[in-house]
């Protein structure tokens, strides 16, 4: 069964072998991905982006201005947006603009972008980069992101299924791939139907749920390093996949992946999909949230710790801990990222005071000052 068209060039002709799925293993909590402190943003002034705030140096400003000129004069100039709002690209629907925003449609455009960005990096410090998928695990500061935001489109959202192997571009949607894999008679990826993100983002954070994660089925990934300007095929074993973490850096884009699933009973798999969807609807809130806010500490559930610490229903301004699941934070329409991060800080404080447990953020925080972080 083939769904879409994953460009063969995504692998440069490489054919790597993959093994069968391993049994689910317990992984200790090694903490979450750290926020992008380097990729902080300054406050905007009416005349544009000004100095000061967030510690952005003059050297970085020079590199960003140079990158702007390079992009504008390149074939990607038509896809370049300036001062582009990111709120619509996140499930919280909050956050400020990106100084530069580019959408790439295929691997060739992504590699062109990498060549341009790496060239600009050669003139000074590295360019702050933010790869934007569905934004289902992302919180951008109200002041925005003073750097380059990159989104994947068109051929970088497709996937195909060949026997038990799934080839998916980085922008492919997890629920769509999960359902298609089941319809192809495969099992092992049903858990992804309840994760509203992209394949590339799922690899970077080793997303998972219902007793499995990306490490269970990932064979390899094609990554494009925007700072170095190179493309590599990296085996799953080389990505240091842990509990909601990997060694894929913020300036690396997951262009495509290969997953090794296994054949199973179609009716059982379809029932499994339905059960997961029903469980999520019954136990997790919909609306403006970014899923689990904190990673689960070892031998504990973050939601239970938060609820027992008396933080369920806690509200700060336009943000509130969900009354349905305490490890979710809901944002009001027209909400503010500053309120969400304030709730996160208070939740961590209460859990520490009540249980002596220091929660780690699972949400990817961008554009915040160190003293604003939870």
Q: Could you explain the architecture of this structure?
A:
The chain has 374 residues and is an alpha+beta fold. It folds into three domains: 44-154, Uridine Diphospho-n-acetylenolpyruvylglucosamine Reductase, domain 2 (2-Layer Sandwich); 157-268, 2-Layer Sandwich (Uridine Diphospho-n-acetylenolpyruvylglucosamine Reductase, domain 3); 287-372, UDP-N-acetylenolpyruvoylglucosamine reductase, C-terminal domain (Uridine Diphospho-n-acetylenolpyruvylglucosamine Reductase, domain 1, Alpha-Beta Complex), CATH 3.90.78.10. The chain has seven helices and 20 strands. Strands 8-9-15-13-14 form a five-stranded antiparallel sheet. A hairpin with a 7-residue loop joins strand 18 and strand 19. Helix 1 (58-72) packs antiparallel against helix 2 (107-121) and helix 3 (174-183) runs antiparallel to helix 5. The radius of gyration is 20 Å and the shape is globular. The model is unreliable at 1-54 (pLDDT under 50).
